[in-house]
Design brief:
about 210 residues; alpha+beta; Arc Repressor Mutant, subunit A; CBS-domain; four-stranded mixed sheet; 10 helices; about 45% helix; CBS domain
């Protein structure tokens, strides 16, 4: 298993400063605790780190080819994906923000008749909200990231690869799509699900319970 540069950096910090809290790791790396959550979950599940309540993280030094890693590599996206929260391009930013928080998600996917056209995240909403723009009059289609500039997955991908993509690209959620043919013969992506940091974290917890 190949670790990301940040994961390697986390291991070095823990080795040099153990026990060390997630707050201290985040401060030394200059990132937020939320940004580290998935990395720490991965390193704990593969046995590189050990999380000790009210103490912090310590270096475990176990091989990454443990039972949890073997299991997660076999799990397909279809087994862990959840229902995507979607809106249309003409939804006003204000209404989209309300919808985002009512559904307690970090990303809304934009679709047209089931076909994904874009995505908009909490960061996107924050940027436009503090910029003085009247969010009651601007549709999300103006601020969204458009296809094909969105990282997607299909239901047959494995969960480990998707977890790596979420970490490496520092995103909250990845849409799960399937390719369908348009009437003109061109391919288009139909959104059928999503995998978020929450889905991955729940999977790690489940596997940890199984191993214990």
């Amino acid at each position: 298993m190949k670790l990301s540069p940040r994961q390697e950096g986390i291991i070095c910090l823990v080795k040099e400063n153990q026990p060390i809290t997630s707050e201290a790791i985040a401060e030394k790396l200059g990132v937020t605790r939320a940004a580290l959550r998935a990395d720490l979950a991965v390193l704990t599940m593969i046995g590189s780190l050990d999380a000790r309540p009210k103490v912090g993280y310590v270096y475990n030094g176990k091989s990454s080819n443990g039972l949890v890693y073997q299991n997660i590599s076999k799990i397909k996206v279809a087994e862990i994906m959840s229902k995507p929260v979607t809106v249309s391009e003409d939804t006003m930013v204000y209404d989209a923000i309300v919808y985002l928080f009512l559904n307690d998600v970090g990303t809304l996917f934009i679709e047209n008749n089931g076909v994904i056209t874009g995505a908009v995240s909490r960061k996107d909403f924050l940027k436009i909200s503090i910029g003085g723009t009247d969010i009651h009059k601007v549709p999300v289609g103006v601020i969204m990231t458009r296809m094909p500039n969105i990282i997607c997955a299909n239901k047959d991908d494995n969960a480990y690869d998707l977890a790596k993509k979420i970490i490496e690209h520092e995103i909250d959620s990845i849409p799960v799509v399937e390719t369908v043919k348009r009437t003109d013969g061109r391919d288009q992506m139909k959104i059928i699900g999503k995998v978020s940091k929450t889905n991955i974290t729940k999977l790690f917890v489940k596997l940890g319970e199984i191993e214990n």
